[in-house]
């Protein structure tokens, strides 16, 4: 409304008034009078007195505005919003609290400015902005200005409309005048405004709260939009001083229980009357945000400044007792709410200093407040978990210098020794003395930093332990029960509203919250384990000390708002309640004056306020209560037992042997697992980028140092450039190494690693338990399996090298348990979700890549290993077979022909100096699992035939797709016009090639382990499989080895994305198969394999000669005389001498066999198979007696039972031999 009214005044004043001044003067005077006098207007300012963001009309794009209309989150490309109030003369200032360090432009604009998704504040003529992300200022054009900001910084925006200047400050330090000679005078009034990109967030302060850096502005007479309440400030400070003086008399104002039911106050009654008088004036002031933050919070912080534990400062507890006893419920509720909001804001935006003093100070006060039970319960109900999570976050500094890390870690260090694969070598024995000194000094600095961070973390855990307390002395819902309700809602919002940033917990907050929650849960868990279940005394003994535990479903706590000012009839209205609680309340006669209403209310209601029902009670015998002494209450009284729900209602029935103390913790633990699955794992992976950057810069610096050493003295220009690069790399490494120390202490420390490891063990045991009970497995949340796989991946990949996974307690047993889960469930028919099945398959594929985890697979029971291998050998059709194939390949890698490399050999030949080449895991074959595979294929002939047929089918498909794609790539490359090959097409092409190679390796493994599948023709499908294999091998060889062919041309293009496509991987795989059947087999097998291979019409001896670089000179021609041929002899680092000799032996054998076949009497055309015309007729069909070769009829009968020629149904096939007389 105010924005629209101001727009109308603006329009009349600038457009209509000069033309029709007499007509509109009355309207203009009326509107101006309304704004100035009805809205408490300040001189030089137009708009409502309560300045907020204009969420009704003054914005552009999609934004989320907080409930207080001061915080904003961008939710579109570039959103803009302005405030509701503008200024037209004088000096003005407002503050912006930066929540994220991304792209934002903060400053001032006029009403005429029109913004869109591309142009924001500072991009139009009458708007001015500062951008700390790009370190620039904006007013249509842009120039360098200021310095970069980070999350938690405070930007102050100052405008001097008398001098026409705009200035910005960062954390109280002036950045200088940004703009001068801005337009002022009639028609020009400036609004605070901001433009921000997607997911960036800030919070404005127009003076409703104390400014963080006011001294500079007071000195230069800058004004705030909202005038500070100086009178109330003076009054509140004076009253607080009186209060402190009265409390310094050490009078105990706590309620004390005695005589079973009578509640009395110990101390001088005059003190209480004085306190009541003070609170009569003090309480209304504590409903104002400004006074709570500036007076009360600073007073409470000053109490804790002396140090020591929070328990050593009882004054805060006494104050909170008085708040609840002598203030109206709505007053104390508003006061506590604003106090916690102020603490939360102060903690969130507190600057990082070396000792983390600000964070510790605010957390200590938060802990002290939450130690007060009634305040804790109220705040737990009022505050959602999303807000509270801020207290558990330790932000990472982006500016190392301002965070004081240079003083804390004066010496930096980074790895300087790398292996052939570019990885850090951790062997400290090869360090020089200087490197060792630097490393130790760096580690000492990291240790100092970690110790200071641990202080903050311990305070955060204390806060959570208070929120999880289930042994409250008062009645009503336990703190843990309240936390559980909020925690459920928190998880629901984060699980179901992934696109709504207003209800989502940031991932970096979630990581810290998870670790603190795990620590708190484990501490309570351990306490419950240690507690003896027999420590509770008998019921008769407990009845002597009345402490009522009331079921909240039957009775709810009352508040003072339910009671009248005069409580004379209060006791008479509650006879049943009084009897149930052990007697009526004794009311002192010295406080019966009606003028002391607060004290009067306190006396008549405070003692029973937590026990009095809101509705009349049923007769005493029907009231659901138990009488227990405080010191004897156990978790059973809060969480219930099997016959009673206790205070934690809605808990599921547990197993008989389930300890009572674990009941409520189990639900929180479920939530912790869900939190890890929602965003924690992804955030752990993101933070590794700092370690990766250190690694890359260290390699670059080492490379630069080596170039400087080799630089000739006659080239000083090159030396100068190299030294500049050296300086840049060193400075960057100094910064990153200190930042990495912070991240290792807060995210990747040993304690955090143990938390994730504990979570992994919890999930493993849960899955094992669910699986052992059968039907329970179907109801287990899917994310448990995800967390098992992801947490293991995090332990292995994210926490090293600072922490070693092998040092975790019980790591070997945990590996074996996880191996059993993956081996059993990757093909579990009970798991129907496609995503989770793929994840399990990928996890198993990764598991068998590493020696330690592969050995864990080998340690699982033999029946589980055999079942796993049987599932891996199932036919590839109608299931995701690529991952299965990769698993089999990894079990074989290191045993195959020339298959021991960790980097693709052809890349190392072409780019030996490139350290960023893709690398493979070192081979770690499993002979045990290979033996299981051989046993299964040997014993189950049907499974072996179906498995190999599916492998051959997929090989035929993958290689055909690859050839088709490289034809398209070649055609695109040969076009005269400039064109680009789609990167997705290149990726698919490389994938098809890799699949072809992996399928060939599986065939090589099968032939090596079980050669009889192909060579023992007593098996029904052996000959057909061998002929199919020979056909595919010949096709691959012909396509790859032909001179100046399609494959050669695409490989020579060296396109990005096709690095893996080369002769070596595929030719070596084919060679391995040929060597196994033509050299390493028995005499009969070699003869059969040679006859099948040579009889295939696609066989060319030249393809075999190509492997050793012995191509036909006649075919090569002069054009290729200078071309370097492929040869296995060139890869002596990867192919052994024995393997080379076997290839030569195979070539000699095939050469002789092909000569003999050529010299033999050619078969007449009538004796050739009428289908393929490549083989002799060797089969006759029944009953029609038509003939063909065995290969054609066997392949035909796989899909069709009708005769080739007459379409009669074939009932049988017999061998055919041509009669001698013919």
Structure description:
Residues 1169-1207 form the RING-type domain. This is E3 ubiquitin-protein ligase RNF123. Component of the KPC complex composed of RNF123/KPC1 and UBAC1/KPC2. Interacts with UBAC1 and CDKN1B via its N-terminal domain. Interacts with RIGI (via N-terminus) and IFIH1 (via N-terminus). With 1222 residues, this protein is α+β, with helices and mostly antiparallel strands. Helix 14 (479-496) packs across helix 21, helix 15 (507-530) packs across helix 21 and helix 32 crosses helix 36. The longest helix is centred in the middle third of the chain and has 48 residues, at 663-710. The chain is elongated, with a radius of gyration of 40 Å.
Features:
1222 residues; alpha+beta; eight-stranded mixed sheet; 24 strands; 50% helix; elongated; transmembrane; membrane
State the distance separating the first and last CA atoms.
Answer: 110 Å
> Rg to the nearest angstrom?
40 Å
Bin the helical content.
Answer: 40-55%
Strand content: 5-15%
What is the overall pLDDT average?
A: 78
What's the total count of β strands? 24
Concise account of the structure shown:
This protein is of the alpha+beta class and 1222 residues long. The protein has 42 helices and 24 strands. Component of the KPC complex composed of RNF123/KPC1 and UBAC1/KPC2. Interacts with UBAC1 and CDKN1B via its N-terminal domain. Interacts with RIGI (via N-terminus) and IFIH1 (via N-terminus).
List the helices and strands and how they pair.
Layout: H1 2-16, H2 21-37, E1 45-46, E2 59-60, E3 63-65, E4 71-74, E5 78-82, E6 86-87, E7 91-98, E8 104-109, E9 127-131, E10 136-139, E11 141-144, E12 154-160, E13 165-170, E14 173-180, E15 191-197, E16 201-205, H3 215-219, E17 223-224, H4 230-247, E18 255-258, E19 262-265, H5 269-285, H6 289-303, H7 315-326, H8 329-348, H9 357-370, H10 373-382, H11 385-388, H12 405-408, H13 433-467, H14 479-496, H15 507-530, H16 539-542, E20 548-550, H17 570-573, H18 575-580, H19 597-605, E21 625-627, H20 635-639, H21 663-710, H22 716-746, H23 750-772, H24 783-797, H25 811-825, H26 834-847, H27 851-859, H28 862-872, H29 882-892, H30 905-910, H31 927-939, H32 941-974, H33 983-1009, H34 1012-1015, H35 1022-1041, H36 1046-1053, H37 1063-1078, H38 1083-1095, H39 1101-1106, H40 1113-1116, H41 1137-1159, E22 1179-1182, E23 1187-1188, H42 1190-1197, E24 1212-1215
Parallel strand pairs: 7-17
Antiparallel strand pairs: 1-6, 2-5, 3-4, 4-16, 5-15, 7-12, 7-16, 8-9, 8-15, 9-10, 10-11, 12-13, 13-14, 18-19, 20-21, 22-23, 22-24
Helix pairs in contact: 1-2, 4-5, 4-6, 6-8, 8-9, 8-10, 9-13, 10-14, 13-15, 13-22, 14-21, 15-21, 21-22, 21-24, 23-24, 23-25, 25-26, 25-27, 26-29, 28-31, 29-33, 32-33, 32-35, 32-36, 33-37, 35-37, 35-42, 37-41
């Amino acid at each position: 409304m105010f924005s629209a009214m101001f727009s109308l005044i603006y329009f009349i004043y600038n457009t209509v008034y000069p033309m029709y001044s007499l007509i509109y003067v009355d309207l203009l005077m009326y509107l101006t009078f309304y704004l100035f006098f009805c809205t408490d207007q300040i001189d030089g300012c137009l708009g409502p007195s309560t300045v907020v963001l204009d969420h009704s009309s003054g914005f552009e794009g999609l934004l989320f505005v907080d409930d207080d209309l001061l915080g904003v989150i961008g939710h579109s490309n570039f959103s803009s919003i302005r405030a509701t109030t503008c200024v037209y003369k004088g000096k003005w200032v407002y503050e912006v609290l930066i929540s994220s360090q991304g792209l934002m432009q903060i400053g001032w604009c006029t009403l005429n400015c029109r913004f869109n998704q591309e142009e924001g504040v500072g991009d139009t003529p009458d708007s001015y902005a500062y951008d700390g992300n790009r370190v620039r200022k904006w007013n249509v054009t842009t120039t360098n200005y200021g310095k970069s900001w980070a999350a938690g910084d405070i930007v102050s925006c100052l405008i001097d409309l008398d001098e026409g200047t705009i200035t910005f400050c960062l954390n109280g330090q002036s950045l200088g005048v940004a703009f001068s000679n801005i337009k002022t005078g009639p028609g020009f009034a400036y609004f605070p405004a901001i433009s921000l990109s997607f997911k960036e967030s800030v919070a404005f302060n127009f003076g409703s709260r104390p400014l963080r850096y006011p001294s500079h502005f007071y000195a230069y007479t800058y004004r705030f939009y909202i005038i500070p309440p100086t009178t109330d400030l003076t009054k509140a400070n004076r009253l607080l001083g009186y209060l402190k003086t009265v409390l310094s008399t050490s009078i105990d104002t706590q309620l004390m229980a005695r005589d079973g039911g009578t509640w009395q106050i110990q101390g001088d009654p005059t003190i209480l009357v004085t306190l009541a008088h003070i609170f009569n004036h003090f309480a209304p002031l504590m409903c104002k945000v400004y006074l709570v933050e500036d007076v009360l919070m600073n007073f409470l912080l000053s109490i804790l400044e002396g140090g020591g534990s929070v328990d050593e400062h009882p004054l805060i507890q006494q104050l909170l007792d008085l708040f609840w006893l002598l203030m109206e419920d709505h007053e104390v509720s508003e006061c506590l709410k604003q106090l916690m909001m102020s603490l939360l804001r102060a903690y969130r935006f507190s600057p990082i200093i070396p000792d983390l003093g600000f964070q510790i100070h605010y957390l200590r006060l938060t802990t002290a407040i939450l130690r007060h039970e009634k305040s804790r319960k109220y705040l737990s109900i009022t505050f959602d978990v999303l807000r509270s999570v801020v207290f558990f976050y330790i932000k990472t500094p982006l500016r190392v210098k301002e965070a004081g890390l240079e003083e804390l870690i004066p010496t930096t260090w980074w790895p300087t020794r790398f292996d052939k694969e570019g990885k850090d070598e951790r062997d400290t024995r090869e360090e020089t003395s200087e490197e060792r000194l630097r490393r130790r000094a760096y580690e000492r600095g990291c240790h100092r930093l970690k110790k200071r961070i641990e202080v903050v973390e311990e305070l955060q855990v204390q806060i959570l332990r208070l929120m999880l307390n289930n042994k409250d002395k008062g009645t009503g819902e336990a703190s843990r029960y309240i936390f559980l309700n909020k925690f459920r809602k928190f998880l629901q919002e984060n699980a179901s509203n992934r696109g709504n940033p207003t209800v989502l917990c940031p991932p970096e907050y979630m990581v810290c919250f998870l670790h603190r929650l795990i620590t708190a849960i484990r501490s309570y868990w351990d306490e419950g384990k240690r507690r003896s279940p027999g420590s509770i005394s008998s019921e008769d003994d407990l009845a002597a000390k009345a402490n009522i535990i009331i079921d909240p479903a039957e009775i709810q706590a009352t508040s003072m708002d339910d009671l009248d000012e005069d409580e004379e009839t209060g006791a008479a209205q509650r006879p049943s309640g009084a009897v149930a609680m052990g007697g009526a309340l004794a009311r002192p006669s010295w406080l019966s004056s009606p003028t002391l209403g607060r004290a009067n209310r306190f006396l008549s209601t405070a003692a029973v306020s937590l026990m009095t029902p809101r509705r009349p009670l049923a007769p005493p015998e029907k009231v659901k209560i138990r009488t227990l002494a405080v010191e004897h209450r156990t978790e059973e009284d809060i969480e219930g037992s099997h016959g009673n729900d206790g205070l934690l209602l809605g808990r599921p029935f547990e197993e008989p042997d389930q300890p009572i103390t674990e009941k409520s913790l189990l639900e929180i633990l479920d939530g912790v697992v869900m939190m890890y699955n929602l965003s924690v794992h992804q955030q752990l992976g993101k933070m590794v980028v700092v370690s990766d950057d250190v690694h890359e810069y260290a390699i670059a610096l080492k490379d630069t140092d080596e170039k400087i050493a080799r630089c000739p003295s006659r080239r000083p220009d090159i030396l100068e450039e190299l030294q500049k690069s050296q300086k840049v790399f060193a400075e960057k490494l100094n910064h990153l190494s200190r930042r990495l120390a912070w991240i290792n202490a807060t995210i990747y420390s040993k304690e955090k690693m143990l938390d994730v490891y504990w979570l992994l063990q919890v999930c493993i045991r849960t899955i094992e338990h669910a699986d052992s009970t059968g039907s329970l497995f179907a109801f287990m949340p899917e994310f448990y399996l995800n967390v098992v796989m992801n947490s293991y991946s995090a332990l292995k990949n994210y926490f090293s090298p600072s922490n070693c996974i092998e040092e975790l307690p019980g790591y070997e047993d945990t590996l074996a348990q996880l191996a059993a889960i993956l081996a059993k469930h990757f093909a579990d028919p009970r798991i129907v979700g496609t995503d989770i099945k793929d994840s399990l398959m990928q996890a198993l594929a990764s598991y068998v890549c590493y020696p330690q985890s592969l050995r864990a697979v080998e340690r699982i029971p033999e029946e589980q290993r055999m079942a796993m291998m049987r599932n891996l050998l199932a036919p590839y059709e109608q299931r995701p077979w690529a991952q299965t194939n990769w698993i089999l390949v990894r079990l074989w890698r290191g045993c195959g022909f020339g298959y021991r490399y960790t980097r693709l050999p052809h890349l190392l030949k072409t780019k030996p100096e490139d350290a960023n080449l893709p690398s493979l895991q070192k081979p770690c074959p499993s002979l045990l699992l290979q033996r299981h595979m051989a046993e299964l294929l040997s014993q189950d002939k049907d499974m072996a035939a179906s498995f190999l047929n599916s492998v051959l089918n997929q090989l035929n498909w993958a290689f055909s797709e690859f050839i088709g794609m490289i034809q398209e790539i070649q055609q695109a490359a040969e076009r005269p016009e400039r064109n680009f090959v789609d990167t997705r097409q290149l990726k698919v092409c490389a994938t098809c090639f890799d699949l072809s190679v992996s399928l060939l390796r599986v065939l090589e493994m099968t032939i090596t382990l079980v050669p009889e599948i192909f060579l023992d023709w007593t098996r029904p499908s052996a000959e057909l499989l061998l002929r199919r294999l020979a056909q595919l091998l010949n096709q691959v060889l012909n396509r790859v080895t032909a001179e100046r062919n399609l494959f050669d041309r695409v490989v020579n293009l060296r396109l990005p994305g096709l690095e893996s496509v080369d002769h070596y991987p595929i030719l070596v795989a084919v060679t391995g198969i040929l060597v196994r059947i033509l050299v390493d087999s028995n005499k009969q097998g070699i003869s059969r394999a040679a006859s099948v291979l040579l009889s295939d019409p696609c066989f060319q001896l030249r393809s075999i000669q190509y492997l050793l670089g012995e191509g036909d000179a006649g075919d090569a021609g002069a054009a290729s005389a200078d071309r370097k041929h492929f040869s296995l002899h060139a890869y002596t680092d990867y192919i052994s001498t024995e393997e080379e000799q076997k290839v030569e032996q195979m070539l000699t054998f095939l050469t002789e066999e092909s000569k003999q076949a050529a010299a033999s009497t050619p078969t007449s055309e009538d004796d050739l198979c009428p289908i393929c015309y490549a083989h002799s007729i060797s089969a006759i069909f029944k009953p029609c007696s038509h003939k063909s070769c065995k290969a054609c009829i066997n392949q035909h009968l796989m899909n069709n039972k009708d005769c080739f020629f007459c379409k009669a149904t074939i009932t049988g096939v017999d061998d055919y031999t041509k009669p001698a007389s013919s």
